[in-house]
């Protein structure tokens, strides 16, 4: 079983974040030292993490921990808070309560620009609206994850799109791609920097089985390379392959512990989360 408990290293990790030269993303350093070996480090720890909209809806205080290389699926009905959870974990929303550490950095102690920097360097996100740049072509959208001087990342962007069955469409303007093709571009963009954390909102919705399998393969590859991967999904097939499963209902996040084919590891993780919740009251 992976041990996903950790101590949040506020000041030390913050120094590390500030000390990174702009030309050397943390993900690149990981790649150069160990291209495929998963790191045992903790990628994400959320404690009593919550958010309340003016309407009163949102996410009730939730605990969640993911180790590098671990995958998690979050399922729940419309309006249950899935996108809110993803926006919190992706540092898009600032929590109303609780704490969130990404890769050992306590995000609550960061300035807005440091949060942006941490998000750009360590997190890959596939949002529901995808957020692609329609004036760029497919590979440019993927490479744009590296920032304004993205041309030097042309090769890796094109290769990744090829892995996703988009080899013949790499030069096609995004405006001329189908919804499913755009979805694969968004997944490639989230994965291309080998982030510590990959978040995806319904990454296989609208895809035919063959292309859904390509997307699942790309996300599995992210985990194999050491990313923690958290998906919001209604796809039972993809959820059942994840190390952990969670249900969200009316803003309450709970581990799913009665999954028929869940591995003993994920069952144990669910029990650990429950125990942690009880401890925290
Ligand atoms: N900007 C907002 N202001 C007020 N309430 C909001 C806002 N955004 C979302 N909500 C409410 O918060 C709750 C959770 O919304 P959220 O979008 O996280 O749900 P979801 O599970 O992602 O839904 P879906 O599956 O339909 O995308 C809902 O009741 C929603 O109406």
TrEMBL record:
One of its GO terms (cellular component) is plasma membrane. Transmembrane segments: none annotated. The keyword Nucleotide-binding applies. Residues 257-266 have a biased composition (Low complexity). Residues 44-275 form the ABC transporter domain. It comes from the Bacteria. This is ATP-binding cassette domain-containing protein. Gene3D superfamilies: P-loop containing nucleotide triphosphate hydrolases. The keyword Cell division does not apply. It holds the Pfam family ABC_tran.
